[in-house]
Write a structure and sequence with these properties.
Blueprint lengths: L17 H14 L4 H15 L1 H8 L3 H8 L7 H10 L11
Helix pairs in contact: 1-2, 3-5
Length: 98
């Protein structure tokens, strides 16, 4: 088979600062009509971008608890999501629905 030099895109590689992470998570929320699973997966990407051990320490979770919270079958509490958001450099806010 011919190697075309094409590799799989990992969005974590371009999430280099909190502004870009915020825009990414916001875009996922908007594009998926606020699908909770998609937003949690977006946070999982943000955690990889910032570093799992750094986010775990900043959120007050162990790395294992962070993995469990953001797993496909995880069910993180709102408090956990807020703590993870702060640890990746974000603050949650709300806006009026259209």
């Amino acid at each position: 088979m011919i190697d075309l030099g094409i590799s799989e895109f990992d969005p974590a590689e371009v999430l280099t600062n909190p502004d870009i992470i915020a825009a990414y998570i916001q875009a996922v929320a908007e594009e998926t009509d606020d699908d909770a699973g998609a937003i949690i997966r977006a946070f999982r990407v943000a955690v990889r971008a910032r570093g799992e051990s750094i986010v775990a320490a900043g959120s007050g979770l162990s790395v294992q608890a962070l993995h469990e919270a953001l797993a496909d079958d995880g069910n993180p509490s709102f408090e956990t999501i807020l703590n993870i958001a702060r640890a990746v450099g974000l603050r949650m806010s709300v806006e009026l629905a259209n």
